[in-house]
C-alpha cells in the first residue's frame, strides 16, 4: 500500500480502464473514473481524543492534490456509541460537492461474546 506524508493511505483505483468502458457506474461515482488514487481523511474530534468517548465520524475523500470529492458523515445513536464503541451499528452517507447522496453504507450491530443475546444480531 502507498502512503502520503503523515501516514495517510492512498487507495488504488480498481473500477475500469477508461470512461468509455464504464457502463454500469452508479450516478455520482463517475468522478472516480479518471483518478488513479483517492485519499480518505478522517476529521479529528478533540472531544473523542480527550475523553475517549466515541463521536460521530466524518471523512473526506480527496484527490492526491487535495481537491475534495465527497464528504461522508456517520449517523449513529449516542448510547450505542458509548455502550458498544467500535461494535456499534451505524449508517454513513457519502455526499458529493452538491450535498447529493451518492452512496449509503449501513453496518448492523456486531455484538460478540456471551454477554449479548442473539436477538440483538441483525
Automatic annotation (TrEMBL):
<keyword id="KW-0597">Phosphoprotein</keyword>
<dbReference type="Pfam" id="PF03803">
    <property type="entry name" value="Scramblase"/>
</dbReference>
<keyword id="KW-0472">Membrane</keyword>
<comment type="function">
    <text>May mediate accelerated ATP-independent bidirectional transbilayer migration of phospholipids upon binding calcium ions that results in a loss of phospholipid asymmetry in the plasma membrane.</text>
</comment>
<protein>
    <recommendedName>
        <fullName>Phospholipid scramblase</fullName>
    </recommendedName>
</protein>
<dbReference type="GO" id="GO:0005886">
    <property type="term" value="C:plasma membrane"/>
</dbReference>
<keyword id="KW-0106">Calcium</keyword>
<dbReference type="InterPro" id="IPR005552">
    <property type="entry name" value="Scramblase"/>
</dbReference>
<keyword id="KW-0449">Lipoprotein</keyword>
<dbReference type="GO" id="GO:0017128">
    <property type="term" value="F:phospholipid scramblase activity"/>
</dbReference>
<keyword id="KW-0564">Palmitate</keyword>
<comment type="similarity">
    <text>Belongs to the phospholipid scramblase family.</text>
</comment>
<keyword id="KW-0812">Transmembrane</keyword>
<keyword id="KW-1133">Transmembrane helix</keyword>
